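Re-running Head-tail connector protein to confirm reproducibility after the cluster update. Everything else is unchanged from the original entry.
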Amino acid sequence: MILSTEEIKRQLKLEEDDTSENTLLSALGAAAEARTSTFLNRRLYDKRESVPETDKDGLVVPDDLRLAMLMLVTHFYENRSAVSEVEMLDTPLAYKWIATPYRIYPQ
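Result of re-run:
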């Protein structure tokens, strides 16, 4: 997984030594990574990895895209159901603003 649980906890302002939600946080991080990969039509690689020569569209995740993924995790964490009693706005707008320049459109 590209986003570490510790990184996600810092984003959500959770106590680092509290492990009670680690399973959920890992699932949210994996979901944000999968959604981002799908949205971009690219396989994502951690900054400690390099893109294999066989993956012409692969992308080492830059810092701004990492931030977008953390923002998506925050959205998922704070909005755990599909409906709400309050009117919700398109929260992932900032996510799309950051991520779209890295998107590849299939031919």
